[in-house]
Design a protein that fits this description.
It is globular and about 45 Å long. By secondary structure, the protein is of the alpha/beta class. The two termini are about 40 Å apart. β1, α2 and β2 form a beta-alpha-beta unit. The protein is about 40% helix and about 20% strand. The strands form two sheets. A six-stranded parallel beta sheet has the order 2-1-3-4-8-9, with helices on both faces.
Length: about 250
């Protein structure tokens, strides 16, 4: 009996050791969520870096029809990955990951020049409290808006080549106005560690608003010199923050 008990204790200790080792493994899955007026292709440079460094990347293509629809699209990708992951959002995508990030697979949230709203907050209210430098919303019909193509380069992507920015302007995805008026119901950053990259030259979201939201959430924060589109213009800095989150999250 004594030998059996000793063997059982040893087996339990071994199992705990294996479990502990597994939980200590770095997270290798990254899910990227684009912002308003854009699509997932903007993540190409960041994805190339992450994949080179051994990460598995999934990209959400939100319909931008409502916050609920975009959160649902994100949750579908999270469920498909079905493993520990870091959830990343740019711009409006920050609201999406805040709403969708409570899934148990999500171990950390990374905000890239993004909204990071609290419970009960809507993006429109945040923009009114701390207005951005740009006011480029342009009606696209049937309750949707886009960024005025004439000012897209200067307001959205001033630090990328004009040819690339102009293509983004004519291929941008309209977003429903309702998405900016829908309050967050359960902000995931209250329960998950978060990281934030402030874009110091951002004209779409006031950098001071970015700093306020990051500080309020207790996010590990870096500042990156660049436009709202730092995920395109500064892919090394953005990928580096994502990789830091993957290594530090538990």
């Amino acid at each position: 009996m004594k030998r059996l008990l000793t063997a059982s204790v040893a087996a339990a200790a071994l199992a705990l050791g294996i479990s502990g080792a597994a939980s200590a493994q770095p997270i290798k899955n990254i899910v990227l969520v684009h912002g308003a007026f854009a699509d997932g292709s903007g993540w190409r440079k960041v994805t190339d870096i992450l994949e080179r460094d051994g990460y598995s990347v999934s990209i959400v293509q939100e319909p931008e029809t409502s916050l609920a629809d975009d959160a649902a699209a994100t949750k579908r990708i999270i469920e498909t990955v079905n493993a520990p992951l870091i959830l990343v959002g740019h711009s409006y995508g920050g609201a999406v990951i805040t709403e969708a990030g409570n899934a148990p697979q999500v171990r950390g949230l990374v905000y890239i020049a993004a909204f990071q709203p609290d419970n009960g907050e809507a993006l429109g209210g945040l923009l009114k409290k701390t207005p951005p430098a740009a006011n480029s919303a342009f009606p696209a019909g049937e309750g949707y808006v886009i960024v005025n193509p004439k000012t897209f380069h200067s307001d959205f992507a001033a630090d990328i080549p004009a040819k690339e920015a102009n293509f983004m302007a004519i291929s941008q995805v309209p977003i429903s106005v309702s998405a900016f008026g829908t309050p967050i119901t359960d902000a995931a950053w209250h329960n998950k560690p978060s990281w934030y990259a402030v874009a110091t030259e951002d004209r779409m979201i006031n950098p001071d608003l970015e700093r306020f939201m990051a500080k309020r959430a207790g996010s590990t924060t870096i500042e990156v010199k660049g436009s709202h589109s730092i995920y395109i213009s500064q892919p090394k800095a953005v990928a580096g923050l994502i990789e830091q989150a993957a290594k530090d999250a538990k």
